[in-house]
Design brief:
The complex is a heterodimer of chains A (about 70) and B (about 475). Chain A has about 70 residues and is mainly α. Chain A is about 45% helix and about 0% strand. With about 475 residues, chain B is α/β, with parallel strands linked by helices. The mean pLDDT of chain B is about 95. Classes of the chains: A mainly alpha (about 70), B alpha/beta (about 475). Chains A and B meet through helix 1 and helix 2 of A and helix 9, helix 11 and helix 12 of B.
Amino acid sequence: MSSNSGNNSNMPPMAIAALARFGDRLDDEQRELLIKTAAQFEEAAEDLRKWELTNGAEPDTSFKAIEGQDS
Amino acid sequence: MAPDPLLGLSIGELGGKIRSGETSPTALARAAIEALDSAGRELNAVTTVMEDRAMRAAGRAEAELAAGHDRGPLHGIPWGAKDLLAAVGAPTTWGATPFREQVFDFDSTVVKKLEQAGAVLVAKLAMVELAGGMGYEELDAAWTGPGRNPWDHDSWAGGSSSGSGAAVAARLLPFAIGSETFGSIVTPASYCGISGLRPTYGRVSRFGAMALSWTLDKLGPLARSAEDCGLVLDAISGPDENDPTCVTRTFHHPAPEGRRDGFRFAIPADWKEGAETGIIYNMESSLETLREIGTVEEITLPDMPSGQAARIIIAAEGASAFEDIIEDGRVMQLTAPSCRVKPYVHSMIPASDYLRAMRVRRHISQAYDRITAGYDAIIGPTTGNVSPLLTRTLDRSSRPTTSAPIGAPGNLAGLPAIAVPNGLGDRGMPTSLQFTGRAWTESRLLFIASEYQSRTEHHMAVPSA
Protein backbone atom coordinates (compact mmCIF):
# COMPACT_ATOMS: atom_id res chain seq x y z
CA MET A 1 0.00 0.00 0.00
CA SER A 2 1.41 3.36 -0.82
CA SER A 3 1.76 5.76 2.08
CA ASN A 4 0.01 8.63 0.35
CA SER A 5 -3.08 6.70 -0.52
CA GLY A 6 -4.49 6.55 2.99
CA ASN A 7 -5.44 9.10 5.61
CA ASN A 8 -3.18 12.15 5.38
CA SER A 9 -4.46 13.88 8.51
CA ASN A 10 -1.37 13.04 10.58
CA MET A 11 1.08 13.63 7.79
CA PRO A 12 3.35 16.70 7.91
CA PRO A 13 2.13 19.33 5.42
CA MET A 14 5.50 19.32 3.66
CA ALA A 15 5.14 15.58 3.10
CA ILE A 16 1.65 16.03 1.67
CA ALA A 17 2.92 18.68 -0.73
CA ALA A 18 5.98 16.68 -1.73
CA LEU A 19 3.99 13.50 -2.30
CA ALA A 20 1.38 15.35 -4.32
CA ARG A 21 4.08 16.67 -6.60
CA PHE A 22 6.64 13.87 -6.69
CA GLY A 23 4.95 10.84 -5.11
CA ASP A 24 4.58 8.98 -8.37
CA ARG A 25 8.37 8.71 -8.61
CA LEU A 26 8.72 6.96 -5.26
CA ASP A 27 8.20 3.47 -3.93
CA ASP A 28 6.75 2.74 -0.50
CA GLU A 29 10.09 2.72 1.29
CA GLN A 30 11.03 6.06 -0.26
CA ARG A 31 7.69 7.55 0.71
CA GLU A 32 8.27 6.50 4.29
CA LEU A 33 11.64 8.21 4.29
CA LEU A 34 10.07 11.30 2.74
CA ILE A 35 7.45 11.48 5.48
CA LYS A 36 10.07 10.96 8.20
CA THR A 37 12.27 13.68 6.68
CA ALA A 38 9.37 16.10 6.44
CA ALA A 39 8.54 15.48 10.09
CA GLN A 40 12.13 16.31 11.05
CA PHE A 41 11.97 19.60 9.16
CA GLU A 42 8.60 20.45 10.70
CA GLU A 43 10.16 19.82 14.11
CA ALA A 44 13.11 22.07 13.31
CA ALA A 45 10.78 24.81 12.06
CA GLU A 46 8.70 24.47 15.22
CA ASP A 47 11.83 24.95 17.34
CA LEU A 48 12.61 28.09 15.39
CA ARG A 49 9.09 29.41 15.91
CA LYS A 50 9.72 29.26 19.67
CA TRP A 51 12.49 31.82 19.26
CA GLU A 52 11.02 35.25 19.79
CA LEU A 53 11.43 37.66 16.92
CA THR A 54 10.25 41.23 16.79
CA ASN A 55 8.75 42.76 13.67
CA GLY A 56 12.02 44.58 13.05
CA ALA A 57 14.21 41.46 13.21
CA GLU A 58 15.52 41.28 9.67
CA PRO A 59 16.79 38.13 7.98
CA ASP A 60 20.57 37.78 7.88
CA THR A 61 20.83 38.62 4.22
CA SER A 62 22.53 41.60 2.68
CA PHE A 63 20.55 42.68 -0.35
CA LYS A 64 21.78 45.86 -1.92
CA ALA A 65 20.82 47.64 -5.09
CA ILE A 66 23.32 47.37 -7.88
CA GLU A 67 25.41 50.53 -8.01
CA GLY A 68 24.67 51.97 -11.42
CA GLN A 69 24.91 55.42 -12.87
CA ASP A 70 22.62 58.19 -11.65
CA SER A 71 19.90 58.92 -14.14
CA MET B 1 54.21 1.10 -4.74
CA ALA B 2 54.62 3.39 -1.75
CA PRO B 3 54.18 7.12 -2.43
CA ASP B 4 57.35 9.19 -2.74
CA PRO B 5 58.24 10.22 0.86
CA LEU B 6 58.86 13.76 -0.40
CA LEU B 7 55.09 14.16 -0.76
CA GLY B 8 54.82 13.80 3.01
CA LEU B 9 56.91 16.90 3.66
CA SER B 10 55.52 20.30 4.53
CA ILE B 11 55.21 23.03 1.94
CA GLY B 12 58.17 24.85 3.46
CA GLU B 13 60.37 21.75 3.44
CA LEU B 14 59.43 20.93 -0.14
CA GLY B 15 60.09 24.48 -1.24
CA GLY B 16 63.56 24.25 0.27
CA LYS B 17 64.30 21.03 -1.59
CA ILE B 18 63.03 22.48 -4.88
CA ARG B 19 65.25 25.53 -4.53
CA SER B 20 68.28 23.49 -3.47
CA GLY B 21 67.85 21.24 -6.50
CA GLU B 22 67.17 18.09 -4.44
CA THR B 23 63.87 17.76 -6.29
CA SER B 24 61.96 19.67 -8.94
CA PRO B 25 58.38 20.68 -9.71
CA THR B 26 58.21 18.09 -12.52
CA ALA B 27 59.58 15.32 -10.29
CA LEU B 28 57.06 16.21 -7.58
CA ALA B 29 54.17 16.40 -10.03
CA ARG B 30 55.13 13.03 -11.50
CA ALA B 31 55.37 11.50 -8.01
CA ALA B 32 51.98 12.91 -7.01
CA ILE B 33 50.34 11.68 -10.22
CA GLU B 34 51.67 8.15 -9.65
CA ALA B 35 50.66 8.17 -5.98
CA LEU B 36 47.16 9.44 -6.70
CA ASP B 37 46.68 6.99 -9.52
CA SER B 38 47.55 4.03 -7.28
CA ALA B 39 47.10 4.65 -3.56
CA GLY B 40 44.66 7.48 -4.22
CA ARG B 41 42.37 5.23 -6.24
CA GLU B 42 42.45 2.57 -3.50
CA LEU B 43 41.14 5.20 -1.11
CA ASN B 44 38.48 6.35 -3.60
CA ALA B 45 40.04 9.77 -3.14
CA VAL B 46 40.43 10.71 -6.79
CA THR B 47 38.02 11.62 -9.56
CA THR B 48 40.50 12.71 -12.26
CA VAL B 49 44.28 12.78 -12.40
CA MET B 50 45.15 15.79 -14.56
CA GLU B 51 48.43 14.57 -15.97
CA ASP B 52 48.66 16.85 -19.03
CA ARG B 53 47.78 20.04 -17.22
CA ALA B 54 49.98 19.12 -14.24
CA MET B 55 53.08 18.34 -16.26
CA ARG B 56 52.71 21.51 -18.32
CA ALA B 57 52.32 23.62 -15.18
CA ALA B 58 55.21 21.87 -13.46
CA GLY B 59 57.42 22.45 -16.51
CA ARG B 60 56.51 26.12 -16.46
CA ALA B 61 57.22 26.36 -12.74
CA GLU B 62 60.58 24.74 -13.24
CA ALA B 63 61.55 27.02 -16.12
CA GLU B 64 60.52 30.10 -14.16
CA LEU B 65 62.65 29.13 -11.18
CA ALA B 66 65.58 28.43 -13.47
CA ALA B 67 65.09 31.92 -14.90
CA GLY B 68 65.05 33.43 -11.42
CA HIS B 69 61.31 34.06 -11.29
CA ASP B 70 60.18 32.77 -7.89
CA ARG B 71 56.45 33.07 -7.22
CA GLY B 72 56.77 32.28 -3.51
CA PRO B 73 56.27 29.39 -1.12
CA LEU B 74 53.79 27.45 -3.26
CA HIS B 75 55.93 27.59 -6.40
CA GLY B 76 56.17 24.07 -7.81
CA ILE B 77 54.11 22.47 -5.03
CA PRO B 78 51.54 19.89 -6.25
CA TRP B 79 47.98 20.14 -4.95
CA GLY B 80 44.51 18.68 -5.46
CA ALA B 81 41.10 20.33 -5.80
CA LYS B 82 37.87 19.05 -4.38
CA ASP B 83 35.85 18.12 -7.44
CA LEU B 84 33.50 21.04 -7.04
CA LEU B 85 36.04 23.55 -8.33
CA ALA B 86 35.85 24.27 -12.04
CA ALA B 87 39.16 23.66 -13.77
CA VAL B 88 40.04 23.40 -17.42
CA GLY B 89 41.34 19.97 -18.35
CA ALA B 90 39.07 17.71 -16.33
CA PRO B 91 35.38 17.13 -15.74
CA THR B 92 33.91 18.76 -12.65
CA THR B 93 31.53 16.13 -11.38
CA TRP B 94 30.47 17.53 -8.01
CA GLY B 95 30.75 13.91 -6.85
CA ALA B 96 27.41 13.14 -8.43
CA THR B 97 26.43 10.82 -11.25
CA PRO B 98 24.17 13.34 -13.04
CA PHE B 99 27.24 15.59 -13.48
CA ARG B 100 29.91 13.02 -14.35
CA GLU B 101 30.34 14.44 -17.85
CA GLN B 102 30.16 18.10 -16.82
CA VAL B 103 33.01 20.19 -18.21
CA PHE B 104 33.74 23.87 -17.65
CA ASP B 105 35.89 25.94 -19.98
CA PHE B 106 37.21 28.21 -17.24
CA ASP B 107 39.11 27.96 -13.98
CA SER B 108 37.52 28.82 -10.67
CA THR B 109 39.12 31.78 -8.90
CA VAL B 110 40.86 29.56 -6.35
CA VAL B 111 42.41 27.47 -9.11
CA LYS B 112 43.56 30.64 -10.88
CA LYS B 113 45.02 32.14 -7.71
CA LEU B 114 46.94 28.97 -6.89
CA GLU B 115 48.26 28.86 -10.43
CA GLN B 116 49.39 32.46 -10.08
CA ALA B 117 51.19 31.40 -6.89
CA GLY B 118 53.02 28.73 -8.88
CA ALA B 119 51.26 25.71 -7.36
CA VAL B 120 50.68 22.73 -9.65
CA LEU B 121 47.17 21.31 -9.87
CA VAL B 122 47.50 17.54 -10.33
CA ALA B 123 44.05 16.11 -9.60
CA LYS B 124 40.40 16.58 -8.88
CA LEU B 125 39.57 14.88 -5.60
CA ALA B 126 36.52 12.87 -4.64
CA MET B 127 33.72 14.28 -2.54
CA VAL B 128 30.34 13.37 -1.16
CA GLU B 129 27.80 13.95 -3.91
CA LEU B 130 26.68 17.57 -4.13
CA ALA B 131 28.73 18.25 -0.99
CA GLY B 132 26.22 16.36 1.12
CA GLY B 133 23.52 18.95 0.62
CA MET B 134 20.86 16.41 -0.24
CA GLY B 135 20.97 15.01 3.29
CA TYR B 136 22.98 11.80 2.81
CA GLU B 137 22.81 9.10 5.43
CA GLU B 138 25.03 6.55 3.70
CA LEU B 139 28.82 6.88 3.89
CA ASP B 140 29.30 5.76 0.29
CA ALA B 141 27.35 8.72 -1.07
CA ALA B 142 29.55 9.43 -4.09
CA TRP B 143 29.91 7.98 -7.56
CA THR B 144 33.54 7.25 -6.67
CA GLY B 145 32.51 4.95 -3.82
CA PRO B 146 33.03 5.38 -0.09
CA GLY B 147 35.81 7.76 0.91
CA ARG B 148 38.27 5.47 2.66
CA ASN B 149 40.43 6.64 5.54
CA PRO B 150 44.22 6.18 5.18
CA TRP B 151 44.40 5.18 8.85
CA ASP B 152 41.99 2.29 8.29
CA HIS B 153 40.56 1.59 4.88
CA ASP B 154 37.36 0.24 6.44
CA SER B 155 36.69 3.58 8.10
CA TRP B 156 35.35 6.78 6.59
CA ALA B 157 37.53 9.68 5.48
CA GLY B 158 34.79 12.10 6.50
CA GLY B 159 32.71 14.37 4.38
CA SER B 160 32.13 16.06 2.28
CA SER B 161 35.76 16.86 1.37
CA SER B 162 36.61 13.13 1.59
CA GLY B 163 39.25 12.94 -1.12
CA SER B 164 40.94 16.16 0.00
CA GLY B 165 41.28 14.77 3.53
CA ALA B 166 42.39 11.28 2.50
CA ALA B 167 44.91 12.36 -0.15
CA VAL B 168 46.71 14.74 2.19
CA ALA B 169 46.64 12.31 5.12
CA ALA B 170 48.00 9.47 2.96
CA ARG B 171 50.93 11.70 1.95
CA LEU B 172 49.88 11.74 -1.70
CA LEU B 173 49.77 15.55 -1.77
CA PRO B 174 51.11 18.30 0.50
CA PHE B 175 47.79 20.15 0.43
CA ALA B 176 44.31 20.18 -1.05
CA ILE B 177 41.38 22.53 -1.21
CA GLY B 178 38.09 21.53 0.35
CA SER B 179 34.82 23.28 0.98
CA GLU B 180 32.69 23.63 4.06
CA THR B 181 29.03 24.45 4.29
CA PHE B 182 28.57 22.64 7.59
CA GLY B 183 31.64 20.71 8.80
CA SER B 184 33.00 19.54 5.46
CA ILE B 185 36.58 20.77 6.00
CA VAL B 186 37.03 20.26 9.72
CA THR B 187 35.41 16.80 9.80
CA PRO B 188 37.70 15.13 7.23
CA ALA B 189 40.64 16.96 8.81
CA SER B 190 39.64 15.47 12.15
CA TYR B 191 38.99 11.94 10.91
CA CYS B 192 42.11 11.82 8.74
CA GLY B 193 44.53 13.37 11.25
CA ILE B 194 45.50 16.50 9.31
CA SER B 195 45.08 20.25 9.67
CA GLY B 196 42.07 21.92 8.07
CA LEU B 197 41.18 25.59 7.98
CA ARG B 198 37.68 26.92 7.49
CA PRO B 199 38.12 30.59 6.63
CA THR B 200 35.71 33.34 7.57
CA TYR B 201 32.74 33.44 5.18
CA GLY B 202 33.69 35.87 2.41
CA ARG B 203 37.46 35.50 2.85
CA VAL B 204 37.89 33.25 -0.21
CA SER B 205 36.14 33.68 -3.55
CA ARG B 206 33.76 30.89 -4.47
CA PHE B 207 33.55 31.81 -8.13
CA GLY B 208 33.62 28.59 -10.13
CA ALA B 209 32.83 26.43 -7.10
CA MET B 210 29.62 24.43 -6.94
CA ALA B 211 27.00 26.32 -4.98
CA LEU B 212 25.13 24.37 -2.33
CA SER B 213 24.24 27.10 0.12
CA TRP B 214 25.14 30.63 -0.98
CA THR B 215 25.08 32.01 2.52
CA LEU B 216 27.15 29.22 4.10
CA ASP B 217 29.63 27.86 1.53
CA LYS B 218 33.33 28.45 2.25
CA LEU B 219 36.52 27.19 0.58
CA GLY B 220 39.67 26.40 2.53
CA PRO B 221 42.84 24.32 2.74
CA LEU B 222 43.57 20.91 4.20
CA ALA B 223 47.28 20.44 4.79
CA ARG B 224 50.04 18.98 6.90
CA SER B 225 50.10 21.78 9.47
CA ALA B 226 48.58 25.08 10.50
CA GLU B 227 51.59 26.81 8.97
CA ASP B 228 50.85 25.22 5.60
CA CYS B 229 47.17 26.17 5.86
CA GLY B 230 48.29 29.76 6.36
CA LEU B 231 50.51 29.70 3.29
CA VAL B 232 47.63 28.39 1.16
CA LEU B 233 45.09 30.85 2.57
CA ASP B 234 47.49 33.68 1.77
CA ALA B 235 47.39 32.60 -1.88
CA ILE B 236 43.65 32.00 -2.25
CA SER B 237 42.14 34.83 -0.20
CA GLY B 238 41.30 38.31 -1.35
CA PRO B 239 38.69 40.18 -3.31
CA ASP B 240 37.14 38.90 -6.52
CA GLU B 241 34.72 40.87 -8.65
CA ASN B 242 33.11 37.58 -9.68
CA ASP B 243 32.01 36.79 -6.12
CA PRO B 244 29.99 39.60 -4.55
CA THR B 245 30.27 38.02 -1.09
CA CYS B 246 34.05 38.13 -1.20
CA VAL B 247 35.44 40.94 0.92
CA THR B 248 38.23 43.38 0.15
CA ARG B 249 40.06 42.72 3.44
CA THR B 250 43.52 41.37 2.91
CA PHE B 251 45.14 38.42 4.64
CA HIS B 252 48.88 37.85 4.82
CA HIS B 253 50.72 34.89 6.22
CA PRO B 254 52.77 34.87 8.25
CA ALA B 255 51.30 37.82 10.08
CA PRO B 256 53.69 40.22 11.81
CA GLU B 257 55.11 38.65 14.96
CA GLY B 258 52.55 38.85 17.73
CA ARG B 259 52.46 37.70 21.32
CA ARG B 260 53.45 34.10 21.93
CA ASP B 261 51.48 33.54 25.11
CA GLY B 262 48.86 35.11 27.32
CA PHE B 263 46.07 33.78 25.17
CA ARG B 264 42.53 33.50 26.47
CA PHE B 265 40.77 30.28 25.56
CA ALA B 266 37.19 29.31 26.33
CA ILE B 267 35.82 25.79 26.29
CA PRO B 268 32.10 24.95 26.37
CA ALA B 269 31.29 23.51 29.80
CA ASP B 270 29.48 20.55 28.24
CA TRP B 271 32.27 19.61 25.84
CA LYS B 272 32.51 16.05 27.17
CA GLU B 273 28.85 15.32 26.47
CA GLY B 274 28.57 12.44 24.01
CA ALA B 275 32.32 12.34 23.39
CA GLU B 276 34.24 9.08 23.26
CA THR B 277 36.72 8.28 26.03
CA GLY B 278 39.74 8.68 23.77
CA ILE B 279 38.51 12.07 22.59
CA ILE B 280 38.12 13.26 26.19
CA TYR B 281 41.54 11.95 27.19
CA ASN B 282 43.30 13.65 24.27
CA MET B 283 41.41 16.90 24.77
CA GLU B 284 42.43 17.01 28.42
CA SER B 285 46.01 16.50 27.35
CA SER B 286 45.61 19.34 24.81
CA LEU B 287 44.26 21.59 27.55
CA GLU B 288 47.47 21.03 29.53
CA THR B 289 49.51 22.10 26.52
CA LEU B 290 47.32 25.13 25.88
CA ARG B 291 47.68 26.23 29.50
CA GLU B 292 51.38 26.70 28.75
CA ILE B 293 50.46 29.59 26.46
CA GLY B 294 47.25 30.89 27.99
CA THR B 295 44.30 30.48 30.27
CA VAL B 296 41.32 28.21 29.72
CA GLU B 297 37.92 29.26 30.97
CA GLU B 298 34.77 27.16 30.94
CA ILE B 299 31.80 28.93 29.40
CA THR B 300 28.18 28.06 28.81
CA LEU B 301 27.11 28.62 25.24
CA PRO B 302 23.66 30.12 24.76
CA ASP B 303 20.83 27.74 24.09
CA MET B 304 19.88 28.80 20.57
CA PRO B 305 18.33 26.75 17.74
CA SER B 306 21.50 26.83 15.63
CA GLY B 307 21.32 23.28 14.29
CA GLN B 308 17.70 23.72 13.29
CA ALA B 309 18.37 27.02 11.52
CA ALA B 310 21.36 25.61 9.66
CA ARG B 311 19.39 22.55 8.60
CA ILE B 312 16.57 24.60 7.12
CA ILE B 313 18.85 27.14 5.43
CA ILE B 314 21.06 24.50 3.79
CA ALA B 315 18.10 22.41 2.65
CA ALA B 316 16.18 25.35 1.23
CA GLU B 317 19.15 26.95 -0.52
CA GLY B 318 20.30 23.54 -1.77
CA ALA B 319 16.86 22.80 -3.15
CA SER B 320 17.01 26.05 -5.07
CA ALA B 321 20.57 25.47 -6.28
CA PHE B 322 19.59 22.02 -7.55
CA GLU B 323 16.02 22.74 -8.53
CA ASP B 324 16.70 21.48 -12.06
CA ILE B 325 17.65 17.95 -11.06
CA ILE B 326 14.89 17.77 -8.46
CA GLU B 327 12.27 18.82 -10.98
CA ASP B 328 13.44 16.61 -13.84
CA GLY B 329 14.06 13.64 -11.58
CA ARG B 330 17.82 13.32 -12.03
CA VAL B 331 18.17 13.20 -8.25
CA MET B 332 17.10 9.59 -8.70
CA GLN B 333 20.54 8.99 -10.26
CA LEU B 334 22.32 9.96 -7.04
CA THR B 335 24.25 7.17 -5.31
CA ALA B 336 22.81 7.39 -1.80
CA PRO B 337 19.22 6.16 -1.57
CA SER B 338 18.45 8.91 0.98
CA CYS B 339 19.60 11.59 -1.49
CA ARG B 340 17.02 10.38 -4.01
CA VAL B 341 14.20 11.25 -1.63
CA LYS B 342 15.09 14.07 0.75
CA PRO B 343 15.48 16.79 -1.92
CA TYR B 344 11.76 16.47 -2.63
CA VAL B 345 11.09 17.56 0.94
CA HIS B 346 13.75 20.27 0.81
CA SER B 347 12.00 21.80 -2.18
CA MET B 348 8.81 22.16 -0.11
CA ILE B 349 10.26 24.18 2.75
CA PRO B 350 8.02 27.23 3.07
CA ALA B 351 9.62 30.60 2.38
CA SER B 352 8.42 31.71 5.81
CA ASP B 353 10.42 28.92 7.48
CA TYR B 354 13.54 29.81 5.52
CA LEU B 355 13.19 33.49 6.36
CA ARG B 356 12.54 32.74 10.01
CA ALA B 357 15.74 30.69 10.05
CA MET B 358 17.59 33.62 8.51
CA ARG B 359 16.12 36.01 11.07
CA VAL B 360 17.11 33.74 13.96
CA ARG B 361 20.50 33.42 12.32
CA ARG B 362 21.16 37.11 12.80
CA HIS B 363 20.56 36.73 16.55
CA ILE B 364 22.92 33.75 16.58
CA SER B 365 25.62 35.66 14.68
CA GLN B 366 25.37 38.61 17.05
CA ALA B 367 25.49 36.36 20.13
CA TYR B 368 28.55 34.49 18.87
CA ASP B 369 30.30 37.67 17.88
CA ARG B 370 29.95 38.85 21.47
CA ILE B 371 31.20 35.49 22.78
CA THR B 372 34.19 35.19 20.47
CA ALA B 373 35.14 38.85 21.04
CA GLY B 374 36.07 37.98 24.62
CA TYR B 375 38.56 35.24 23.76
CA ASP B 376 41.36 34.44 21.38
CA ALA B 377 39.68 31.14 20.56
CA ILE B 378 36.84 28.88 21.58
CA ILE B 379 38.30 25.41 21.82
CA GLY B 380 37.03 21.85 21.97
CA PRO B 381 37.19 18.51 20.20
CA THR B 382 36.46 18.92 16.48
CA THR B 383 34.28 15.82 16.58
CA GLY B 384 33.09 13.84 19.57
CA ASN B 385 34.02 10.58 17.89
CA VAL B 386 36.73 9.13 15.70
CA SER B 387 36.00 8.17 12.13
CA PRO B 388 33.11 5.70 11.96
CA LEU B 389 33.37 2.37 10.18
CA LEU B 390 32.01 2.44 6.65
CA THR B 391 29.29 0.00 7.65
CA ARG B 392 27.59 2.71 9.71
CA THR B 393 25.08 5.26 8.45
CA LEU B 394 24.41 8.87 9.39
CA ASP B 395 20.76 8.25 10.16
CA ARG B 396 19.76 10.77 12.82
CA SER B 397 18.38 8.06 15.08
CA SER B 398 21.67 6.18 15.29
CA ARG B 399 24.09 8.92 14.41
CA PRO B 400 27.67 7.74 14.93
CA THR B 401 29.09 11.23 14.62
CA THR B 402 28.93 14.28 16.81
CA SER B 403 30.34 17.66 15.94
CA ALA B 404 31.65 20.39 18.19
CA PRO B 405 28.91 22.35 19.98
CA ILE B 406 30.13 25.45 18.20
CA GLY B 407 29.97 23.78 14.78
CA ALA B 408 26.46 24.93 13.87
CA PRO B 409 26.64 28.49 15.22
CA GLY B 410 30.20 28.83 13.95
CA ASN B 411 29.09 28.07 10.41
CA LEU B 412 25.93 30.15 10.65
CA ALA B 413 27.95 33.13 11.85
CA GLY B 414 30.65 32.57 9.22
CA LEU B 415 33.38 32.24 11.85
CA PRO B 416 36.81 30.84 11.05
CA ALA B 417 38.02 27.60 12.61
CA ILE B 418 41.04 25.40 12.39
CA ALA B 419 41.15 21.70 13.23
CA VAL B 420 44.47 20.13 14.15
CA PRO B 421 45.32 16.56 15.20
CA ASN B 422 45.70 15.96 18.93
CA GLY B 423 46.34 12.23 19.21
CA LEU B 424 44.85 8.84 18.50
CA GLY B 425 41.64 7.54 20.01
CA ASP B 426 39.41 4.50 19.64
CA ARG B 427 40.63 1.91 17.12
CA GLY B 428 43.86 3.89 16.79
CA MET B 429 42.09 6.57 14.74
CA PRO B 430 43.00 10.27 14.85
CA THR B 431 41.35 12.77 17.15
CA SER B 432 41.29 16.51 16.68
CA LEU B 433 41.31 19.83 18.49
CA GLN B 434 39.42 22.78 17.04
CA PHE B 435 40.02 26.50 17.52
CA THR B 436 37.17 28.81 16.51
CA GLY B 437 37.62 32.54 16.51
CA ARG B 438 35.89 35.81 15.87
CA ALA B 439 35.36 36.65 12.21
CA TRP B 440 38.54 37.65 10.36
CA THR B 441 40.91 36.33 13.05
CA GLU B 442 42.49 33.58 10.94
CA SER B 443 45.98 34.96 11.61
CA ARG B 444 45.53 34.60 15.35
CA LEU B 445 44.01 31.12 15.05
CA LEU B 446 46.85 30.00 12.79
CA PHE B 447 49.42 31.43 15.18
CA ILE B 448 47.86 29.66 18.15
CA ALA B 449 47.50 26.37 16.26
CA SER B 450 51.13 26.63 15.14
CA GLU B 451 52.21 27.24 18.73
CA TYR B 452 50.28 24.10 19.70
CA GLN B 453 51.91 22.13 16.90
CA SER B 454 55.35 23.39 17.90
CA ARG B 455 54.76 21.78 21.32
CA THR B 456 53.27 18.50 20.07
CA GLU B 457 53.98 15.95 17.36
CA HIS B 458 50.48 14.70 16.56
CA HIS B 459 50.49 16.39 13.16
CA MET B 460 53.61 14.41 12.25
CA ALA B 461 51.92 11.02 12.76
CA VAL B 462 51.73 8.92 9.61
CA PRO B 463 48.88 6.49 8.88
CA SER B 464 49.96 2.89 9.22
CA ALA B 465 47.19 1.31 7.11
